[in-house]
Write a structure and sequence with these properties.
It is built from 5 helices and no strands. It is an all-alpha fold and 159 residues long. It is globular, with a radius of gyration of 21 Å.
Amino acid sequence: MKPQAGPAAATTAGLTSTWRASVGAAMRHSAVRYVITGVVSAAADFGLLYLLHEWLGLPVSVAAFIAVSTAFFLNFALNRVWSFRSTAPVAGQISRYFLLACVNWVLTTIMVGLFTWAGFYYLIAKAIALVVTTASNYLLYRLWVFADRRRHPLETTRS
């Protein structure tokens, strides 16, 4: 015998529908996709480091280089194709992406040093630097690195 559909089933269906609509709306925003891309890239970096060092026995420095390089290009590709849905030429974008990464490495080093000098615990200093660079990178990726010059970079229909 089939269970009767009642008010509880209708409420559950309504909540599921509302939740799906909310998630769908969030996923249409490039900032949400950007954060997800960062998490996926970090997971790939850590996972590949573990796999290469622990399972394949590569020296940790070699494994770390391969892992971070792979994550770097994975992050570029996911941000280009999924987060920002760019169709601009890749050559200019990869150049801008690499330049921004270099600036981030320098700024992170400076910020961690300054915050540590100011009395912050070094991991807290690193977390602050991560928040600053993540927020600024989103804007710079959207307006400069992955901007499609054929459309206005603040256009929201494809963001």
